[in-house]
Amino acid sequence: MSPSPDGRTDPRFAKALLQRDDAFRREDESADASFYQQPRLVSHLDRTALNTVERLVAGLIVEDDPVVLDLMASVDSHLPSRRRFSKVTGLGMNEEELRANPSLTDWVVKDLNADPTLPFADGTFDVVLNVVSVEYLTRPVEVFEEVGRVLKPGGIFLVVFSTRWFPPKVVRVWEDAREEERLGIVEAFFRDSGAFASSEYFISMGLPRPEDDRYFSLGVPSDPIFAVFAEKKGLVLDRRNRLVLRDPAQLDTDWAAVQARKEHVGETMECPHCQQRLSKWEVPDDPCIDWPNDFLYLCFNDFCPFVVRGWRYMWNQGILGTSYRYLYNPLKGTSTTVPIRGLADLRPGIVEEDPAGRFRSAIEAGLVDFSALPEVDDYGPDLGPARG
Ligand SMILES: C[S@@+](CC[C@H](N)C(=O)[O-])C[C@H]1O[C@@H](n2cnc3c(N)ncnc32)[C@H](O)[C@@H]1O
Asked: What is the pLDDT of residues 165-208, one digit of tens each?
């Protein structure tokens, strides 16, 4: 398992969340068939996010003419159009949506919550995709076991999710978890199914939302993309040349340069670790806080190497889900740290923030794996439509 960006993929952490009695209950417990009866011929992600998913898929599929299963499929295909596939099967809840998906060569309508078995023979597929849907499964480990059964040895299962869903049908553990905890939940499904080699994760956040997107005016960035993927046990050697993602915890740091930058924070007002502009932060009016300042300056880059390493460092001390942000005290001219229990902590106190900074610096610092992905257009010669 790759290290988590914040220590929350620790097996003990996900286990506690998943053991709750109501973990897989939903607001709407009626049969899924009625909820999905009406076709939704829409995209569930913005175009930039869809492009990221397609690039990720392009980087991870290394087989020639693979046989693909798109699990919990709808109208959108996530397969790169320049690749050829020998067969692409879709499984979903609505036939009209599946019929409209341009990549599918055949499809099955099936409710996996009513019966988590997959109607396919052992070792059928090279690749199984599950995009923005895992949060609707009430028996996920059984489905992951089945995916393991229908994959060929060394075949890949890629689970992608974001931060949007149908509220009545999402399982409670998903809704209650924080973004970073969901990586751990999906890793637990992989692990508990017993069918897969160790899983890896991918995160892309903060790319610009397309201007013609219906939420563009809200000023929010593109939908974030989180993915967890693993190969079925029983490695086949020639499949090993998949995209290699970088591990943000293994960063090379020039500590002398960090130290030198610390000397000048008062002039630059930049975090010495990631060089993102610091945000002005109002000190809360709280008797437990003894800073005499009205304001302090904090780094709110969630991918700042200091924050990324902090989760790991604290985890190694046996403290789960805790890290630190860099803090500059303008009265004393000193650098220090402040603990956080999650990425949202302390944000309410921000009074001035570079709106793009949180995300831009993550990408520029190379801490987001996105940079490792091939451009879809650059990915091999144009082989024509994806249909087999
Ligand atoms: C948000 S959509 C995502 C569709 C598609 N994977 C995509 O990337 O656009 C969720 C999908 O999960 C499927 N789904 C939901 N509950 C399901 C169930 N119980 N069994 C099988 N599929 C289900 C539905 O068919 C629906 O298309």
From this structure: 989 999 999 988 877 678 889 989 999 999 998 887 777 766 67
Identify the CA nearest to 179 among candidates 354, 347, 365: 347
How far, in Å, from the CA of 217 to the mean position of ligand 1?
28
C-alpha span between 236 and 359 (Å, rounded): 37
Q: Distance from the CA of 118 to the center of ligand 1, in angstroms? A: 15
Instruction: Kindly tell me the burial class for residue 268, based on how many C-beta atoms sit within 10 Å of its own C-beta (0-12, 13-18, 19 or more).
Output: middle
* Residue of 37, 74, 115 to mutate, ligand 1, most atoms within 8 A of C-beta: 74
Q: What is the pLDDT of residues 286-333, one digit of tens each?
A: 877 777 889 999 998 876 778 877 766 776 676 656 788 999 999 999
Report CA(95)–ligand 1 centroid distance (Å): 11
pLDDT at 7 > cutoff 90: no
Ligand 1 site: residues with CB under 6 angstroms? Answer: 32, 36, 44, 72-74, 76, 92-94, 97, 110-113, 131-133, 136
**Nearest 5°: CA angle at 215, between 211 and 216?**
30
Please give the CATH superfamily to which domain 11-246+371-378 belongs. Answer: Vaccinia Virus protein VP39 (3.40.50.150)
Domain ranges for the chain? 11-246+371-378, 255-367
Cα 331 to averaged position of ligand 1 atoms, centre (Å)? 54
Residue 8 near residue 41, CB atoms below 8 Å: no
